[in-house]
Amino acid sequence: MNKDILNTGIQHFINKNLNTDISSLLLKYPKIEGVDTKIVAEQIQAKLKSKKKLPSWFNTSNIYYPNKLNIEQTSSEKTALYKSHLIQGNTLSDLTGGFGVDSYYFAKVFKKVTHCEINTELSRIAQHNFKMLKQHNISCQAVDGMEFLANCNKVDCIYLDPSRRDQTKKKVFLLQDCTPDITEIHEQLLEKAKMVLVKVSPLVDISKAIADLPHINEIHIVAVDNQVKEMLLLISGKTSNTLIKAINIKEDSAEKFSFQHTEESQKQANYSLPLTYLYEPNSAILKSGGFNMVSQRYNLNKLHPSTHLYTSDSLTDFPGRRFLIKQILPYNKQGIKKLKTLTKANITSRNFPLTVDKLRSQLKIKDGGSLYLFFCTDSNNAKIAVITEKI
């Protein structure tokens, strides 16, 4: 951590050049107030990446940024705020503290938070930033979280985000491939805390996670603006039925959908050909796998067991996108001929043999416009194109 970065002149230079081409800065300035311009440029790039993702950091003076990879890997403020409301108590240990976004939001609801980060420089950066953010109930420990856990007193909650990189820095996502392996240490964690919250890859198979960890009480799938960002496992004791919660955080609201894991296999979806309206679940629900539950909960018909689109004759509220069906075309020579008369549309492929790119290439349809085309398989196993307009 180069404290010269925090000098008034350099901070002014960073703020002034947030939108300046980095290459031109490197050519024009070999050094800025005695600091290598490459170091200053890294601060500019990292701060710029924080503008939307971490507005509290971006809008606070004298924040020190790590490299942009740390910014890319850290939680966003929206997901950190969501996590902070899942657990409660007086004390929390964040065993994989990183840049400290999660610790900062946990500190809003816990009396004392311990931020463990094995990277000494990143620990110092987080400690400095907590002071700038005026969050004074966080203790930073530059130690391995698991070593800290072995020697610490019992706390109310433990949070950890196991590393999803192997020894060769290759990305992994299976629970057993991450470090630490939560399947091996969950009993140890529960000896030290009443509740444990674990952030895992959104690629993790939900049913396998439940089979591997009998203590999972809740699984939260968190999307932001319809992009799944995190999967969270809340562990507090053995349970016979895990609650699945899918949430899509939007600009001024949130779509929520929940069900017990065993409910999905106990329910049956209703099926039909496309009717008047078409419904596309948000990405968090798609990840949750609660497809039969969606049909039952909202009284909608599914188009096909593997086509995760729904339909109805009467319009209903829905956690996802809703469309008015304008036309249904078979995907054959006659239907393709009619589709080629369209010049612009938004295309989605669901349970269909061709990808969106191949469909665009074949049909010569540009992206955009007011029409939404869904290429899919219907309840008669026929390949169709559903032409719709968004409601």
Automatic annotation (TrEMBL):
Gene3D superfamilies: Methyltransferase PG1098, N-terminal domain, Vaccinia Virus protein VP39. Pfam families: PG_1098_Fer, Thump_like. Residues 320-390 form the THUMP-like domain. InterPro entries: PG_1098_Fer, SAM-dependent_MTases_sf, Thump-like. Residues 277-319 form the PG-1098 ferredoxin-like domain. This is Uncharacterized protein. It comes from Galbibacter marinus.
